[in-house]
Design goal:
Strand content: under 5%
Helix content: over 70%
Structural class: mainly alpha
Shape: rod-shaped
Number of helices: 9
Number of strands: 0
CATH architecture of the largest domain: Up-down Bundle
Radius of gyration: 34 Å
Oligomer: single chain
Distance between the termini: 79 Å
Largest sheet: none
């Protein structure tokens, strides 16, 4: 014989863990549905499920059969209220720095002597490729671009047209890509 929600609640209030487990099993679809609707930054699905379970425990503890209200309706309301309250707490402005910030890495990796030596050799190889593969104009245009100058600024500084700067930059890129 299957017990009703009201009798399961009475057994759970008396300390019967099996009755409480049966109530949790019966109410879990409602808890999961509410958790799906209540997700927010700072309140993920598992946290919302846990809040729903807390609402169910409060419903079991506070249910009064003399009020002539079905337990399932009362528990569903308690679950929904607990999950909505958790969502409201998570969305408070005071929690915004925690909810929307980017975590910093625990430890900034420091390059060791080997990595620094390898990076130095790679840098020297790039400079050597620039000296041998690029013309003087292409080198000047590329270095100006790396310094953050616009093609118009570079053209004024070198006394040539902006189109010449664009063409020299395109040739330098093409040569350096092909020289790998």
């Amino acid at each position: 014989m299957q017990l009703t929600d009201k009798s399961l609640c009475a057994h759970a209030q008396a300390g019967d863990e099996a009755a409480l487990a049966a109530l949790i099993t019966r109410m879990m679809p409602i808890i999961r549905k509410g958790a799906t609707a209540c997700r927010a930054p700072g309140l993920d699905f598992d946290d919302a499920v846990q809040e729903g379970l807390i609402g169910l425990f409060n419903a079991v503890r506070g249910y009064d059969a003399a009020q002539n209200v079905r337990f399932s309706a009362y528990a569903a309301a308690c679950i929904l209220h607990a999950q909505r309250d958790a969502r409201r707490r998570a969305l408070r402005k005071k929690h915004a720095p925690l909810n929307f910030s980017v975590p910093l890495p625990d430890e900034v990796p420091q390059a060791g002597p080997e990595e620094l030596a390898i990076a130095g050799e790679e840098c020297a190889a790039v400079w050597q490729r620039m000296r041998t593969a690029l013309s003087v104009l292409e080198r000047r245009v590329l270095l100006a671009r790396l310094d953050g100058q616009t093609p118009a600024q570079t053209a004024r500084a070198l006394g040539c047209s902006e189109k010449t700067v664009h063409n020299a930059l395109a040739r330098a890129r093409r040569k350096l890509r092909g020289a790998r």
